[in-house]
Specification:
The protein is an alpha+beta fold. Helices cover 42% and strands 33% of the residues. The protein contains two helices and six strands; from the N terminus they run H-E-E-E-E-E-E-H. Strands 1, 2, 3, 4, 5 and 6 form a six-stranded antiparallel β-sheet that branches. Strand 2 and strand 3 form a beta hairpin. Helix 1 packs antiparallel against helix 2. The radius of gyration is 19 Å and the shape is elongated. The chain starts with a helix and ends with a helix. The model has no long low-confidence stretch (mean pLDDT 90).
Amino acid sequence: MENPNEIQLITLLPGLAMLGISVFLYRSTRKFLASSKTASGTILADKEGSLSSKPRFTFTTEDGTEIVVVSNTATKAHTFRKGQTVRVLYDPARPERATIDTFIQLWLATVICAGLGLSFSITSFFIH
């Protein structure tokens, strides 16, 4: 049987790594929010999977450029409807990296990483 200290380390290290990633994602999102511009966008369609979809949307930047984006974050299928108007956040220097202004679109990765990191880290302290 393995040494309990080794098992603790095996659960603690990934937990700490995930917490580190969640801090990085949190800071990146906060920085993005602080410098982003807003625009009104329109859902074109969902890029569908079996249980989830990535919304494809269009918006126009302040300088009049029309941008089409496929979201990086998949959500429950049919969360957005074709033709639906959405608030879009974008970095004027990289408008192709725009995101829809919803909690899930902005924070899902951060929440998942933090949750997994906490779970692994806390679990490591209960291994004897």
